[in-house]
Amino acid sequence: MLSVIVQGFLVGRLTNRFREDLLITVSVVLMGISLLGWALAPSVLWLYIIMTPTALSGGLLNTLLSSTLTKAVAPQEIGGILGLSAAVESSTRIIAPLLGGVLLQQVGTWAPGIFGAVVMVGVSVYVFITIYNNPIVATFKQNKPAPVPVSD
């Protein structure tokens, strides 16, 4: 429910106030912190409270990544990149529950949270390095459209 609210009402307001690259970075870090909180949650009630930022950052990331991908490619490639993105997202919706179930059963209730937090630390480092070294993102910072390659 929170993801729907974020995607429907909050993303537009946030992107009007903050740069997309900053929102993506903050969302990835927030997700990592909340997944670590999952591992440390002392009760189910705390787990519900701690998982709220996960839903918020997930809803924000889903929309922002699609937007960023469409700006990073030529107009004639937008359908292809969105299709590829949807395929990758679908595969993660198959792999993550399987892996999470194995971790829950074999290791404990804290294991999926720790695993997710470790993955998100790696993703956070990657996003931080990529965002600030990518020329397409630099054009976002100046609020200019991304350059479209022209063939001779």
Give a short summary of the structure.
The protein contains 6 helices and no strands. With 152 residues, it is mainly α.
Could you describe the 3D structure shown?
The protein is 82% helix and 0% strand. The chain is mostly helical and 152 residues long. It has one domain (2-141). Helix 2 (20-40) packs antiparallel against helix 5 (111-133) and helix 3 packs antiparallel against helix 4 (78-106). The model is unreliable at 140-144 (pLDDT under 50).
Give average pLDDT, whole number.
84
Number of domains: 1
* Separate helix tally: 6
* Largest sheet data: none
End-to-end Cα distance: 49 Å
Helix content: over 70%
Oligomer, anyone? single chain
Which features does this protein show?
152 residues; mainly alpha; 82% helix; globular
Secondary-structure map:
Blueprint lengths: L1 H16 L2 H21 L3 H29 L5 H29 L4 H23 L1 H7 L11
Helix pairs in contact: 1-3, 2-3, 2-5, 3-4
